[in-house]
Every structure is written in C-alpha cells, then in structure tokens.
Amino acid sequence: MKKWIVCVLFVLVILMIGTVSAENGMAVAAPKAALETLSGPVVLPIGSMWYETSSVPPAFFWGGALPAPSSDGPFTFYSREDTCLYVTDAYDPGDVFEVADNEAVIGTTNPVPAYNLVPEIGDPVVTFADERFSKGWWTMAGGQEHSITLTTVAGFPAGRGYIMVQPGACPTSSVPEFPSAILPVTMIAGLIGLVFLIKRTR
C-alpha cells in the first residue's frame, strides 16, 4: 500500500513542476528573428513567440522625450485569416504604448504606475502575465496588409518592449496564456515514472 502512495506522490510532484514552469514563462521560445533594424519596415513573423532578446522583432526600442515613436518598424504582416497582435512592456513597469495600424490608432496598452523594479524582468512571457506591466492585444482582420507603429506615451524616456502576432482571433480571457511544451512533457515523464514504479513493485 505504501508503494502505491509513493507512486502517486511522484506523479503529482512531476505535474506540479511542469505547471509552475509554464506559469513562470518557461515556454518554448521560437528561433530568433533574423531581421534587425534601426528604422524602416520590419516583417513580423506570424506565430513566432516572443522571448527576452535585443533582436528586432520581437523587441522594439524607443528613446527621447515622450511621446516617443519607436525607433523600429513599422512592423508589417499579412494573413488571410484573423490574427492577434500582442504588445507588452518589460524591465521596469510604467511604459504605455499607443498602437497604430496603417497610421490609424487601434488602441493603447493599459496605464500602470512607473517605477524602477529591482530586479528588472526582461522576459516578455513573464511581464505579459504580470499585472504591474502595461500590455494590450488586438484582433487584426484577415485579408489585408497590416503596418504597425508603436509610440511610447507614458513612462520612461527610453526602453524596450516586445511585440508579436499569433494566428487566430484574440482569446476572450483577461490575460491570454501562451502555449508551452513544458507541461505536456512533464506529464509524459510522470506517466513513464509511474509505469516504472508499478513494475518494480510487482
């Protein structure tokens, strides 16, 4: 009986590790985008996940008196189907971004207090899930070219944010969750471990 309890506890621990890892931004990162630029059109790959980097995209930068247009972009993409555009701040909370498509403003990320965070958080997967950071997401209509520009309207006079676009309309949840391979892998590992322990008890 005790051996069965040990087996169950082993599986539960494995599953808990996978869940915590996914919640803390340990999602599978897409390969780094090849295109870096200081200005001019930048292709925004549909389906590429963001991650902590200085590569443009998924990163974008700004500097100067506010409101400060991003020194990168516009970010362009096309899809026959609807897509979801995501924007988030990183490192120190407080930067708020105005987002425009083909020079028409489509929205602004949510306002939050600005302050120096110690330690800073540079992973956009983590900051997007953190209520202290400004963020926003918009469903982009399919069948047309999109040209996204970003302007920092509040916060710090220089910094880095992140942008990405995913296939399909935006989720209806308050903070969309992004796919992670950590949880499925740990579930499989837990099942394999359970089978191994059961065999040893026989």
Looking at the structure, what is the overall shape?
A: globular
Percentage of residues in strands: 25-35%
- In the predicted model, the low-confidence regions spanning at least 5 consecutive residues are 17-38, 180-186
* Largest beta-sheet characterization: 6 strands, mixed
SSE string: HEEEEEEEHEEEH
Number of alpha- plus pi-helical segments: 3
Radius of gyration: 20 Å
Describe the structure.
The structure is a single chain. Strand 6 and strand 7 (104-108) form a beta hairpin. Helix 1 (2-23) packs antiparallel against helix 3 (182-201). With 202 residues, this protein is of the alpha+beta class. The radius of gyration is 20 Å and the shape is globular. The strands form two sheets. Strands 1, 3, 4, 6, 7 and 9 form a six-stranded mixed beta sheet that branches. Helices cover 24% and strands 29% of the residues. The protein is built from three helices and ten strands. It has a domain at 45-166: Jelly Rolls (Sandwich), CATH 2.60.120.
